Fold each of these.
Amino acid sequence: MGPPRHRFLSVLMLRVIVPVVAAFAAVAATNIVVDPYDITPIVTIPGVNDSKPRQLDRANLTKTRAIVRDRWDAVALGPSQIERSIDPDNPALEDHGIHLYNAGLSGEAPAEEAILLRRAAAPGTLKFAIVGLSFYLYMPRTKDPGKPGPSRLEPAGTYEAELEEDAALAVSPSQFAASIETIVNSFKRRRSLQHLKNGLLNVEPDFVPPDHRAAFDQADDAYLNLSETYRAILRAEPAPGRARFDHAALRDMLATARRHGIELYFFVPPDHARHCETRRLVGVEPLFRQWLREVAEVLAAEAGPAGRRFALWDFSGYNGVTTETVPAAPGRMIWYNDSVHFTYRAGRAATDRMLGFADRELDGIDDFGEPITVESMEAHFARQDQTRARVLSHHPELVADVERLFRRP
């Protein structure tokens, strides 16, 4: 029979320790195979793990892993406008043999763009990056603009640190719950809003708002009236002409580009013209223009050897795309899902314009997007003002709709 102590340990092993270890192993195996956050993709099994409703919860992990897992030729960086619109399956990219990953994240600030660019450049295959610059996310939110906010991507650590993080998640009860939800969702064929393998958020066609006017109102109302949006910018910044914005993250991206020989294409996303009116009504349009001037100045000052310039494009304002009529009744728009989120088609058109590819999307619209420099900036603003006056003379509802939503402080 053996000593009592040995018998006790044997019973403890059989009845407690082995079942606990087996349970942990089962949880880890389920989490790794189902992979509800798309962090360690092994296999996609239709009806088992193809619909991942919790993937967006940990999209920061998804993208930091995917951006170095494959050997990408190009990367798109920026906030939700990029995440939802820059299409890696753009036929023009495919025709040129360009393997692009969409590393956009909702709320992706410039500091996070810089982190992701460094990660994307590390494997040594990256040729260029398309970087969406958000005025709203670029601006400081406090009286201390030099103090960086917390990043969801830090510590964007060593390989060993990430392995530890992934291992901890593999046995996490919360990830196991997400795995079960993934299995149920997949079995029942429910579509989930999640990132595709190329990083694009699968908005189209299943998650396009049926009522565009309501979606426009919701987005513009938030930027007009919430204290943490444009009004926060006014509180944080002194008068136009005296504020200098923090361009440390921008310079970080330029340094990465020079170090790895990467081309950078910066652009202001094509917010709908109605949303441009929200900036004017709140009073941040002068700051927007000052910000754009400063970005152009930094790009000119940081130009590489032999006068190499970093491209800067402005797709916002008033043009044949951004002035698309918002339907009064439910119906699909060509270029927009709401006033700040544009369609895959608009994203492909912007990408083609920046990269100099043939126009496949614009159907004769020739005023979408303009390359700008320090020297051309004032002429660019003058043209925008002239176009705005002409557009509003025919479409006064662009202003009326925004004024209807505005609640003055």
Note: Strands lie at 74-77, 100-102, 128-132, 263-268, 311-314, 370-371.
Amino acid sequence: MSTVSFTVTFPTEAGFIGRECNAANCGRCFKVHEDSLRDELYCPYCGQRFRKDELFTRDQLRYAEEQGVELAKEYMYGEIDKMFANMARRFRSGPVRMTQNPIRYKAKTVAPAYREKRVDSELSCPDCTVVFQVFGVFGFCPGCRSENQAVYDANLAILRLELAAAKDQGRALRHAYSDLVSAFEHFCVGRASKEFRKAQFQDLFEARRAFKEQRGVDILTGLSADETLTLRRVFQKRHANIHNRGLIGERYVRKVPEDARLIGQRAELSLEEFEAGARALRSVIDRIVETDPRAA
């Protein structure tokens, strides 16, 4: 039994083609430039590895099926035509004669009935040069799974764009505080040694402890007292918004005793504090990179 294969093509937008993670806990979409496609790719959101032919979007698969049906029809009619043509040649003369009217079928051109999903950030990985686009906060390069400073900077740019475009500034700030901490968490998971990857990196002090234990490095070294206080507030306000309806509670005060007088009140968020926290966190990330033995 022989197998017949067909080649189908997908449209691109400015050279970018969509990909969709098929991990059960992810399923998010991103784009990779056609010149950057590899045999193996990584989801920029969850970091899971996939073969190139496992990341098609549902829209692409439907489009490929439509193309495939048309190509299969053309092939099938062609094979039937050849079969009857051979029979007609054999029975051209004699008591039983057979003639054949050629069957012609040309595969119809299938126009894509979809557009790739919107993305809001484009990045060229400084480690492997893969060019890709993502929507929202992400953690990895899809080409090499690198977690470098460029990933953090791209995430920060995304958050700033979302804040600038937001109609509800309070809601946008709540998301921005949370996503800033998530971007830091993604970075730490990638830079931590295997036995420390399950550390609670959404907790600034747990992140500090984890890197002290695995590298003997204090990631907060070099920060001023004001910068450290800002980071403590950003991390704890993020926790308060997710787990305590935005109210300052005892857990918050244990980590930020300077705000003990505010217990029971709503944690106040501001663009200025977010920006100060983002700058301080970039210094922490630089410190993590500088002390990474893999970079030596």
Note: Residues 147-295 form one domain.
Amino acid sequence: MLKLSFGIIILFLFINLSAQKSPSVKDLEKSGTQSFSRGDFDAAIADFTNVIELTSRLEIKGRLRPSEFAERAVSTEDALARDSIRVIDPRTAVAYVNRGRAYFGKGEAEKAMGDFEQAISISPHMYDGYFYRGTLWFNEKKYHQALNDLERAIRIDPSRFEAYVARGLVLLEQDRASEAYAVFNLGIKRSPKSAVALYYRGEAHRRTGDLKSALADFEHAMKLDPQFGYPFQGRGLIHMQNGTADAAIKDFTTGLRLNPRMAQAYANRGIAYYVKGEMTDAEADFERACAIDPTMRADIDEGLRILKRRKP
């Protein structure tokens, strides 16, 4: 009952373009990045909005004028006028992506989508615009759109591994584990030391029943990044499949110590406690899982129904 998440592949690294004219833009970019890292999304949004204001300049038939942000470049109904408008400073598109990520962090998906689309309209060959819009499509369970955007990102820059991993993740969510495995392989070729890519390839192995290969990938990921909790979650699921609940509980517990917000690890540890007959601990973990992610309740109930049907 593993729930997949883009949260562990979206690295909190902002796109940066060094300021060419205004030192204040560079300062705002730095401040916005720091605010985002602290989880202060409102401050980050304010900083990146200021970057957009300072860097947005439209050129209409050779004449420069200040813009009312770059929305004017796509909102005009006059196609000829729209085609004659371009944003001069490439930092504008970067700021839209970074502000969109801050909106996403606040849970304001509609505003995030607007900013990602604005970045793409300004810079149609921008890897990050398609990558982050693809992650948002995935979050909204619009898998076809997600796959299209992530494929576009890969075509723009085949050397970056994140879009391969993200695309494989969408395929896993669609129960296309064999296809996902092939895509994860491509990502690992680009970044052989990515614990995230190895973890997800291990999950693809596990989904296809190749537990030996899955275990090898999970344990390799643990060595590459000992502070990454998800491979312990994966190995715990293998222990569950092998009927060793105590070993599973140990791995789920380790994973939760490293990543306390893994709702699925609480749910799966609860299932392991349930198998052992330790109902108080099981119910406590189920409650913790649902407190983090209320949608977990349906998965927990389904897991318990399956276990009850298997009992003689």
Note: Strands lie at 57-60, 63-66, 85-87.
Amino acid sequence: MTLDQLALLIGRTHRTARGLRDRWCNAGWTQSAKLAVNLPPFVWLTSRGSRVAQSPFRTWDANHGLASHIEAVTNVRLLLERELRLGSWECERLIAQDFHSRSEIRPHLPDAVLDGPQKVAIEVELTLKSRARLDAIIRDLGETYEHVWYFAAPRLVPTLKEIALLARWQNVRVHRYPAQAIEVAASAQIV
């Protein structure tokens, strides 16, 4: 997560989050770096921190190419799980553990599943994929989950809405990213 997201998560100032991050880094539990020019520094667990936190996941290697996507997924998580309290978050890494083999053919995995009164697949889309690829993803998710919520960069919203309208199950909602809490809350009432 980014340093700004850590501040939101702990409900403190940016300065307090920075101090906490520095203590964790000095203890060897986390690493921190600026991974993209337009984003704040990220903080992630080291193998030592993973053992202390008893994380079930292998440690993450900093990935500059995924930084914007990870920041966006975490922002959506903070909105849905923390601010709106719509359910508990199951990350893609947890969902992937249900598949025992990398060679096993599996449907597209969402970025997360929001587990509340109903299961909602969450997909964050910041970059354009081919129409055929988007159609296949929407089909896979629509057939697997009760509801699918896309959070997409504004330029992608029209294409995704068009594909969602043609989807067989009609269970896909497209939200603009960054999402507005009031819009998402209204959509959640409909679900």
Note: Residues 67-83 form the longest helix (17 residues).
